[in-house]
Amino acid sequence: MVCIPCIVIPVLLWVYKRFLEPIVYPLIAPFISRFWSKAAVQETQKPTNTAECNGTANGSTANGPKTVADKKAD
C-alpha cells in the first residue's frame, strides 16, 4: 500500500508546474533577479586543459584497438 504523501506530493508538484508557475513566476521574477545577480554565475572559471590531444585514449585509436580480441576456437 502506498502512503498518502507519496501520492499527494507529486500531484501537487505537477499542478504547480503546470498551472500555477506560469502565473506566479512572472510576478516574482523581478525580485529574484535583484537578489540573484548574473555576476555570480559569470564568476565561475572555465577549466584550462594544457595537455595536447593526440587522438588516442589509453592507446586506442579512433578506428578501434590495434589488437584483435581472442576468439573462441572450434
Automatic annotation (TrEMBL):
Listed Polar residues bias regions: 46-64
UniProt region (Disordered), positions on chain: 46-74
Matching Pfam families: DUF4512 (PF14975)
Matches recorded under InterPro entries: UPF0729_C18orf32-like (IPR026776)
Protein family membership: Belongs to the UPF0729 family.
Classification via PANTHER family: UPF0729 PROTEIN C18ORF32
Protein name per its UniProtKB record: CR032 protein
